[in-house]
Amino acid sequence: MSRPAVLVLCVIFLSSIVTADDDSPTAYEILQSYNFPMGLLPKGALGYDLDKDTGKFNAYFNGSCGFSLEGSYQLKYKSTISGYISQNKLTKLSGISVKVLFLWLNIVEVTRNGDDMEFSVGIASAAFPIDNFFECPQCGCGLDCVNGQVRKLKTNPFVSSI
Fold first, then answer.
1. Could you tell me the residue ranges of all domains in the chain?
2. 26-133 CATH pick, 1.10.8.50, 2.30.240.10, 3.40.50.620, 2.60.40.10
3. For residue 136, what are the CA distances in angstroms to 14, 40, 125?
4. Which residues form the signal peptide (predicted)?
5. Helix, strand or coil for residue 16?
6. What is the pLDDT of residue 43?
7. Other CB atoms closer than 10 Å to residue 132's CB: what's the count?
8. Would the pLDDT of 93 be above 60?
């Protein structure tokens, strides 16, 4: 095979890879395919890795991210979020933490129970209605970046902490 023919085949092969990447789902669409709302991740996910056999995943951001919700919940996302995903369950999470009183605690599990999202830090958990997570928060300002107001999260009073 001549050099120009090999070059043309390489260009065709590389362009097909680029096209396939353009058609691949986003990290937010992957969340939705496992029955989670896209608002579990802040805006700006650059990409992800997913092993469909094991459910092991990594989501990548340009840097760490922090914001407040409801004035009392402070969240931090590292530049890489990892864990295992299956239908209605995210387990062995790393890279997401929430400030509770004076302590930063890692969110280690998220479970969807019907219309509620339950977040566990290991020794305690809290549930919120799923409609709090239809919109992706934005780094720095959370859910209401347009007019600077912090939107109140709805809570589920029937979930207790240990």
1. 26-133
2. 2.30.240.10
3. 33, 7, 21
4. 1-20
5. helix
6. 93
7. 19
8. yes
- Residue 45 has, within 13 A of its CA and on its CB side, a CA count of 22
> Which residue is it, tokens 């058609």?
23
Helical H segments across the chain, by residue range: 3-23, 27-33
Query: Among 98, 99, 156, which residue's Cα sits nearest to residue 127?
Result: 156
Q: Judging by beta carbons within 10 Å of its beta carbon (0-12, 13-18, 19+), is residue 36 exposed, middle or buried? A: buried
Length of the chain (residues): 162
Torsion sign across C-alpha atoms 63, 68, 74, 75: negative
Instruction: Report yes or no: 116 and 34 within 8 Å, Cβ to Cβ.
Output: no
Please tell me whether residue 84 adopts helix, strand or coil conformation: strand
pLDDT tens digits, residue range 7-17?
A: 333 333 333 33
Q: What is the mean pLDDT of residues 115-139?
A: 91
Which DSSP state fits 63?
A: S
Q: Which of 55, 65, 60 is nearest to 92 (CA)?
A: 55
DSSP code for 142:
B
As a whole number of angstroms, the distance between CA 67 and CA 38 comes to 17
